[in-house]
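Listing S7. Sequence submitted for prediction.
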Amino acid sequence: MQDACALALTKWPAEGMPSRPLGWIVAVARHKALDRLRREARRAPLEAAAARGWAGPPPAVPNGAGPGEGGLGDDDLALIFMCCHPALDPEARIALTLRCVCGLTTAEIAATFVVPEPTLAQRLVRAKRKIRQAGIPLKPPGPEELPRRLAAVLRVVYLVFTQGHMAPAGAELVRGTLCEQAIRLARALAALMPDEPEVTALLALLLLTDARREARTGAAGELVLLGDQDRGRWDAAKIAEGTALLRQALSAGHPGPYQVHAAIAACHAEPDTDWTEIAALYGELARYEPTAVTEANRAVAVAMAEGPAAGLAILDSLGARLARWPQFHIARAELLNRAGRTSEAVAAFRRALDLPLPKPEQAFLERRIGELLGDGKP
């Protein structure tokens, strides 16, 4: 922060003060902190290489490996592996990595985990305290340590993408920079561990989902639902690559959650959506991820396949656990409307509007309420 303030004193008199001075200082401070972390992450391999230089020629680098221990050539990926230390609780290590390496805010991470922001902040504090008190060494792991950390690393990359694909708040529905960052990390991970089917499946999932990015918003940035999207705007190359990667992952015969996620995304990329198949896949996903969010997504697919009453029965059993998740209230409102329960649908839409949402989605919900009330007003 001191470095950022010093830079501001140099740049602002010459170039003018930015429109958001505090945001500028925080962003610069974060970049400087990340640069310092990257330098520290490279220190041990560089020192080891220097030591080998005194002793004789260095060993040959395996094909496809980049600089650093274990071929962790991507600096950001190396930092993610470093932060996903197995000594930390799974949720804590993922949250800490999203905050300290990927730059997501505490509020954004709390929305991802569907927990209050103070709860998430306490998890971060406890994780940092444990690192200090237990003397946990944060350094790039060797090749033998990668499999133990892989599940957390996959989750981090996936959650970075979801933050870009559907922003939890702000002016934009989609943050393309985050989507592209996650895809880049997934590609680096696939190059590092090409024989891991879950790694291949994660890349397939991100490509199949991101293929619809351009069609998800209209000319003015408004939300466009899946059924209303112009499929001619979908990225055919990403769909083809994602489908081929999914087949490659499935052929390994070692199923996992990201293969199921990718199969669901592939169903959405078909000309005609098979909701019965999607509902079955969500049932399979629940074996790996038995969460309320998984069950809520299954409820929507069941409703599309069997009717709104079947989906509502599932959603109504989840209300207490997902009260802070706006997508739960939106899904429930749409099913209530389909069931002819208009006043309840309006109330559910309003509950969603009470929670953080990106502005395009807020505008969409306000229009939906106006349509249901028949007066064009929310």
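Caption to Listing S7: primary sequence and predicted structure tokens for the chain studied. The chain has 17 helices and no strands. The chain has a mean pLDDT of 87.
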